[in-house]
Specification:
- The complex is a heterodimer of chains A (about 290) and B (about 300).
- Chain A is mostly helical.
- Chain A has a single domain, classed as MetI-like fold.
- In chain A, about 75% of the residues lie in helices and about 5% in strands.
- Chain A is built from 14 helices and 2 strands, in the order H-H-E-E-H-H-H-H-H-H-H-H-H-H-H-H.
- Chain A has a two-stranded antiparallel ribbon.
- The radius of gyration of chain A is 24 Å and the shape is globular.
- The two termini of chain A are about 50 Å apart.
- Chain B folds into 2 domains: about 55 residues, no CATH class; about 170 residues, Orthogonal Bundle (MetI-like fold), CATH 1.10.3720.
- The chains are: A mainly alpha (about 290), B mainly alpha (about 300).
- The interface between A and B is large, with 119 and 117 residues.
Chain lengths: ~290, ~300
């Protein structure tokens, strides 16, 4: 038996190809990318060793500061928005719509599987002001207010971006959290009800504490996704107006491919990776401390 | 037992400690609740569906209608498919879709075959260091695509793969593997070990046990995983944009992005038709497989 399951050659046959491709195309490039941070130039123009110049530049570059700030702002606002709206929807599904929720659940989930590019272009047209009012401005006009140039200023462009991404993802988070809510044992709910808890008390004292683990994993998933935002920004605002909605990912892409500086691009990519890691570890640790306290 | 099957009281509006009621009478309060419920459901459905309906109607309108009547107006002719023809032929959407398929399906096949085999090796076979290798794969889920983009671009350039379909297939396969291996290992963990042991006692080699027992037992899971990866690859923009800047292999997402650049704000109808083609394909898939898609996508995310 051990001969069968401990067959070294079988391990190689089953695991080898996957591990090979994974190593060559993901692990090696990650290390390679680390090496790039010490150089300047690109594959086409050739590389030149520049020591730690890229890092010095990174910390004093106002563009990086702006992009970093935008990335964090977007990630925090969108994570809070996605998880809150998703959680509200999931509570709605479980406690209010109950069996009737199946159709709503399925429909509201749908936008997340749509190509981001398609959704972004659709929203671009919906919020358009010139040459032709989109449906949103038509509606605003209907209420007696003048059309808004949504993509003309940083704040409104950001607002459209947030609305779009919450529209896309709320159904997904709702289903994710819904599964967590269904896992709360019925006995716990029942005994709380017998003890006189109802409505908001029940939700605040029983439902929220008991769904903390799934809330936490949603938050980690959401923040990891939103820190890497790329498609929706590129297709919706293309980083503009100016560079006011440019996240780190897009700045990195431009630095590398428009300005041909792979070294600096890799340094920005490294900054992004480090932030993702730090945020995840931070959330994990702070949540663990809370658990021991409570 | 789920919260939806037993429903004692209505927590949202219930008085404390109300006992289980078998039959509900139609009180004004209950009637009000039904109205409110309908309104909420209606609102949710409206905000999800209305943008898509607007998209569909927009794709049927002529340029003249777009410019001279409000954007919420219905198309004059509901069977005006001219925009689709323009998008498909002049806009090259057909070719972009073919490119996407050329990149997506070989990648999917590779991901499934390699991922299932790796999951089997990591969960069913017994050897030193398998925990470490699983962790190594897991680490790949965290890495942002930007981190591997530039070295890969250099490597493909130097091996003269740039401009072919291979950079897409290879990169999609590698980026799809971590999640697939992780999910397949989880599924294989749920298969009772005794089954494989019984097969071994009956004289099956490990390869036989994988082909005749392991694979068939996780076949459903394989389909779910493939579906999840399909959406990731089909909808990807970053990798496609990077590796198709040279050559003729722009995928549908890159094509759509260029499409609006090409026609811009001027040609409404064809732009809407192009977006619509992209959306409708996914919609049809979702119509048939929605439960599986929902299960797969949410299962793929709970790994924290």
């Amino acid at each position: 038996m051990n001969n069968v399951f401990g067959n070294k050659r079988a391990v190689l046959v089953f695991l080898g190809p996957a591990l090979l491709i994974y190593t060559v195309i993901m692990l090696v490039p990650v290390l390679w990318s680390l090496g790039y941070t010490l150089f300047t130039g690109s594959v086409i123009t050739g590389f030149e060793f520049s020591g730690f110049d890229n890092f010095a530049k990174l910390f004093s570059d106002p563009k990086v500061g702006e992009a970093l700030l935008f990335t964090l702002k977007y990630a925090v606002i969108l994570t809070v928005g996605q998880v809150l709206v998703g959680y509200a929807l999931s509570l709605l599904y479980v406690f209010w719509l109950r069996k009737a929720s199946s159709l709503v659940r399925t429909l509201v989930f749908f936008p997340i599987v749509l190509p981001t590019v398609a959704v972004s272009l659709l929203f671009q047209k919906m919020f358009e002001v010139a040459p032709q009012n989109g449906i949103v401005n038509e509606f605003i006009n209907l209420l007696g207010m003048p059309s808004v140039d949504w993509f003309g200023s940083a704040d409104t462009a950001f607002l459209v971006l947030v609305i779009m991404d919450i529209w896309r993802s709320m159904g997904f988070y709702a289903v994710l959290l819904y599964a967590g809510l269904l896992d709360i044992p019925e006995e716990v709910m029942e005994s709380a009800r017998l003890d006189g808890a109802g409505g908001w008390t029940l939700i605040r004292r029983i439902v929220i504490p008991m769904s903390l683990p799934v809330l936490l994993s949603s938050i980690i998933f959401s923040i990891n996704g939103t820190l890497k935002v790329f498609d929706s920004v590129l297709a919706l605002t293309n980083g503009g107006p100016g560079s006011s909605t440019t996240p780190l990912t897009l700045l990195m892409f431009r630095t590398a491919f428009s300005y041909g500086d792979y070294g600096y691009g890799s340094t920005i990519a490294l900054l992004l990776t480090v932030i993702c890691l730090l945020v995840t570890v931070f959330i994990f640790r702070s949540s663990r401390r809370d658990l021991t306290k409570g | 037992m789920t919260a939806t099957t037993t429903a004692p009281g209505r927590p949202a509006s219930a008085k404390p400690g109300r006992p289980l009621r078998i039959r509900r009478r139609m009180t004004p309060r209950r009637a009000g609740s039904i109205v409110l419920k309908t309104l909420v459901i209606g609102f949710l459905l409206a905000i999800t569906v209305l943008p898509l309906i607007w998209l569909l109607l927009g794709s049927l309108k002529t340029q003249n209608e777009w410019l001279n009547s409000p954007s919420w107006a219905l198309p004059e002719n509901f069977l005006n498919f001219e925009n689709y023809q323009v998008a498909w032929v002049d806009g090259d959407i057909g070719r972009y879709i073919l490119n996407s398929a050329l990149a997506t399906f070989p990648s999917l096949a590779l991901i499934v075959v390699l991922g299932v085999a790796a999951g089997f090796a990591l969960e069913v076979l017994v050897w030193r260091g398998r925990g470490g290798v699983l962790l190594l794969f897991l680490a790949g889920i965290m890495v942002p695509g930007q981190m591997i983009l530039l070295p890969l671009f250099s490597a493909y350039f130097q091996t003269h793969l740039t401009g072919t379909i291979w950079p897409l297939i290879l990169t999609y396969t590698a980026t799809g593997l971590p999640l697939t291996v992780f999910m397949m290992a989880t599924y294989f963990r749920a298969v009772p070990r005794e089954i494989f042991e019984a097969a071994a006692i009956d004289g099956a080699s490990i390869y036989r046990s994988f082909l005749s027992i392991g694979f068939p037992m996780v076949r459903n899971a394989v389909f779910t995983v493939a579906l999840v990866q399909f959406f990731f690859i089909w909808n990807d923009l970053l990798i496609a944009l990077t590796f198709t800047s040279v050559g003729d292999f722009q995928t549908i997402q890159v094509g759509l992005l260029n499409f609006t650049g090409q026609f811009g704000q001027v040609q409404y109808g064809p732009t809407f038709a192009a977006i619509c083609i992209n959306v409708v394909g996914i919609l049809v898939l979702y119509l048939f497989l929605n439960q599986r898609v929902m299960r797969g996508l949410t299962a793929g995310s709970v790994k924290g």
